[in-house]
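The instructor's notes for this session suggest beginning with a concrete chain rather than abstract definitions. Hand out the sequence below and ask the class to guess, before any prediction is shown, which regions might be ordered.
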Amino acid sequence: MPHYQRARIGVKALVFRNTRLLLLHRRTDLDLNPGRWDLPGGGVEVGDGLVDSLTREVREETGFRVTVGPVVDVALVRSRLRSGERFTGVVVFYACSTQARGAPCLDPDEHSEFAWVGAPNVGRFPLIPYQSRPIRKAFRDLTVTPASPPGRGRAI
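After discussion, reveal the predicted structure:
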């Protein structure tokens, strides 16, 4: 199979509260996408399912328990680490909801701040490029029932 690509599998959550999306700011000293705004999620571990991986990653990064909804988008991405190493990934984006009312409890090893962002203001945040399309789709297709207002942090 020399012509097939090997790819890492990732999952990302589009978590809405009212009509605002949760974004996390990646620390500037990280090897992958430093200083970018990101969706909660991460890599799928061997033996885990996509949904199990997503709920685990969201809980680790935010403290939130989420209900995973439909797939919003799937992207084939090419990424580069600070070292110059390149790799290919497949990222599955899911619409998610949460009953959590407070601020997310960020993993300080990964993220430095959070924001609840409305559709008109997403462009003000330097996103990881491949996340723009699923975010636009999620806002366009937004059917989340309003929940509680945002907790502390930026609400834009």
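Then share the key points. The first strand starts at residue 8 and ends at 17. The domain at 8-155 is CATH 3.90.79.10 (Nucleoside Triphosphate Pyrophosphohydrolase).
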